[in-house]
């Protein structure tokens, strides 16, 4: 079940965030994420966050305006539809979505491409000095065909 974030979810969301970053971004020193932990922990409640609750939080998507600031799924629940369900929840709320993904994180790049996102630019992330892609999805609501139709 996908539901809105509750303050009681914060510890589990942060655990998934840290582990997910360390697993997906082995090309970045893990201290980078540990140093940003407190900032992210403070920002999570300020964002729109949905969690996948399957007898406990197994994944989440954080959205700021129409920007996906984070999509993370617990390792044992990946490739089972959780990420897709969370992105679809975000698609229900917006006509357009954006997300940055590290270019070396090919699993994430391929996932977002499979969800009808398109790469619109490439740049260097100033904090990590790694190449990242900006992807966009235009969403057409209440239709069965179209780029990111729901």
From TrEMBL:
Alphabetized Gene3D superfamilies for the sequence: 3.40.630.30
Domain N-acetyltransferase: 1-140
UniProtKB keywords: Acyltransferase, Transferase
InterPro entries, A to Z: Acyl_CoA_acyltransferase (IPR016181), GNAT_dom (IPR000182)
GO terms of molecular function: acyltransferase activity, transferring groups other than amino-acyl groups
Protein name, entry field: N-acetyltransferase domain-containing protein
Organism expressing this protein natively: Gilliamella apicola
């Amino acid at each position: 079940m996908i539901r809105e974030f509750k303050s009681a979810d914060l510890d589990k969301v942060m655990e998934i965030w840290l582990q997910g970053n360390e697993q997906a971004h082995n090309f970045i020193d893990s201290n980078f994420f540990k140093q940003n932990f407190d900032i992210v922990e403070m920002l999570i409640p300020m964002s729109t966050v949905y969690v996948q609750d399957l007898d406990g939080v197994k994944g989440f998507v954080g959205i700021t305006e129409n920007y996906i600031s984070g999509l993370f799924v617990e390792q044992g629940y990946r490739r089972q539809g959780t990420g897709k369900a969370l992105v679809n929840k975000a698609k229900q709320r917006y006509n357009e979505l954006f997300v940055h993904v590290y270019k070396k994180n090919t699993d994430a790049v391929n996932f977002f491409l499979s969800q009808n996102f398109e790469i619109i630019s490439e740049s260097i992330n100033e904090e990590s000095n790694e190449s990242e892609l900006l992807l966009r999805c235009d969403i057409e609501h209440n239709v069965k065909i179209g780029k990111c139709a729901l």
